[in-house]
Structure formats: C-alpha cells, structure tokens
Amino acid sequence: MKILVTGANGFIGKNLIAELRNRNYTDIFEYSRDSNPSLLNNYCKEADFVFHLAGINRPKDQSEFMDENFGFTTKLLETLQKYQNTCPVMISSSIQAELDNPYGISKKACEDFLFEYGKKTGSKVLVYRFPNVFGKWSRPNYNSGVATFCNNIARDLPINVNDPCVEMNLVYIDDVVEELINSLNGNEHYVGDFCEVPIFHNITLGAIVELIYSFKKSREERTVPDMSNSLEKKLYSTYLSFLPEDHFSYDLKMNVDERGSFTEFIKTPDRGQVSVNISRPGITKGNHWHHTKNEKFLVVSGKGVIRFRKVNSEEVIEYYVSGDKMEVVDIPTGYTHNIENLGETDMVTIMWANEYFDQQKPDTYYLEV
Predict the structure, then answer these.
(1) Where are the beta strands (DSSP E) in 143-279?
(2) pTM of the model
C-alpha cells in the first residue's frame, strides 16, 4: 500500500511512521509543514490510504487555528478529489471539537468537512477524537501536560498544577498507533459516527504528578514502579524518554570490605529485590538461615560452591556453580547456607530475595554450615 501521512514530523506522525516501517510498509509518503507543496499533488494522486495528522496546537494568533487546521484539511481533500482518488481518509481530531473554543471550532469544522467529503465521493472516512495523548517523542509545552511534567521533573524545573483534582482522560501513543494500523487494515473501533482508541486511562492530574515524582525518586531508592499497572508502566516509559542525555546513568551504593562487595540493584514492594555480590578468591560469605525469606543465586562470572545444611541436621549439601554454565540455585528456608569462591578471580553472583532487607526484622540468623 501507498500510505500518505500528513504531519509526518509531529508527535503521532513520527511514532506511526516508525511502526509502519517496523511492519514492513515501505511506500510511505511523508508530508509535513516543511515539505515542498508540489509534493501533495503527487501523493494525493498515488495514495491508497491517508493518515491526516497535520494540525496546529499552539499558534501565535488564534485565527491560525482555522487557517492551519481547516485550511489545510480542505486543501488535502480537494486535491484528492481533483485526482478522483477515493481512498480511505483518517483524520486526527480532538475531544475539544465538542467545546466552544477556537481550537475546538477548527477541529469540528474539519470533521464536518470530512463527513461531507465522504458522502460526496463515497470515500471511507474515519474521524478520531483523541483525548490527551502521551508517550515518547512528544513535545513539552505543546503536545500534552504529561510531556511537560516529565520534561520538567526530570530536569528539576518547576511545574504548574492549577487543580490536582481535575480528571484526565489519557491514551498512550503505542495504543494510538496500534489502532491507526488497525484502521489501515479495516479493523477500526467505532463509537457512533466516530472512531476511538479502545484502551484509555482515567486519572487525576495530581496523581499523574505524584507518579512522575516517584519515578524520579526511584533512582535514589533503587526501586521500580508497579509494572502490573498498565498506566504506571506507560507513564514510566514516557518519563524515561525525557531524561537528559547526560543523566541516563545513576550510581549505586556499594558495600565494600576485604571480602568483596554487595550492592543492591533493584527493590520492589511485591517482587523482592535484586543485588550483585562480588566475592574475592577464597572468600566464603553467608553462614546464615531464614524463616521466610528465600533467595535465588546465579553465578555469572567465576566459580564456586554453595553449601546447605538443614537446621538441626549434620548433612551438608553442595552445589558447584560457574559463570560458564548459567544455573539458578534456590535457597530454601530452614537451611543455613554459604557461598565460597573456589576460583582465582572475583566471583560475581546475582542474588534475588523475595523481600528487601528490613533492619527491624531481618529474618537472618547466623549459623555455620
């Protein structure tokens, strides 16, 4: 298919084109504000499907809403009609088309013109009234409040929240793109005369800000957000896309002594924590047991032995481990255990525990294996 995308350099356009290419669509006509106007004739003559995403959100003068949004829409549809191209046309509208403001009025005019165009030409038309769209490659102070919050919080800049109780209706860019590609294949989701993205999220403005601040703090606390929460997962991905390029990395606290080091990597409230343990040659660590805390050990470099002895038993069980063979060893409760480096180089072990360390209730009891 030959696909025309207007607004190709915009937030939705960039994401859509990237995914179309991922899915091996190769004939994509990219049209943007900087394109040579003469290209529009060729594109409208050849296109098999049109994604009309071009529009203006923050003009210098409010009269530009009609000039830019409605003006270009009429030009696009008239050019298609000139070449008698009745291919399907999708238009990016807004929930503000229901409101009496200059932006909403311009979007409503575009919708009405497209519906009339469909009746006149027999072309299939798809009108999407998008709510607040968020995700990577969005522009702060332009596309959405989420973009502005992520950008400013990541850079320690102030934000402005007029009313934290305001309810926001959000759609994530990947869900938008998935729906647009569905429409390309004739599988769009209708609600009455309009189309919609079936996956959306409702959350207050204050809760969004609180989550984004928690993402920033998670680096200090070595935590990760709740990835089972779909919105939180999407917001976190969006926040990371706004990190300054010289702030991708952050330090961890290494607990170092003559035996090696122990460093907490990730902590979660419901999935425990992951740590990195480095043991120097000949060093034995551990010699303790737990009531409820359990662990998994994975040696990724070096070689050693993990020894177990059930409390109140004399039998010692040994598991020889090496970075040459990736093997997870479970550390059951009620067994005292240790790990010894048998090699001539440092042994590196990834350790997972089902709960992160609580100094008030460590559930760790010294006992030699």
Answers:
(1) 167-172, 190-191, 194-195, 201-204, 254-257, 260-268, 272-279
(2) 0.92
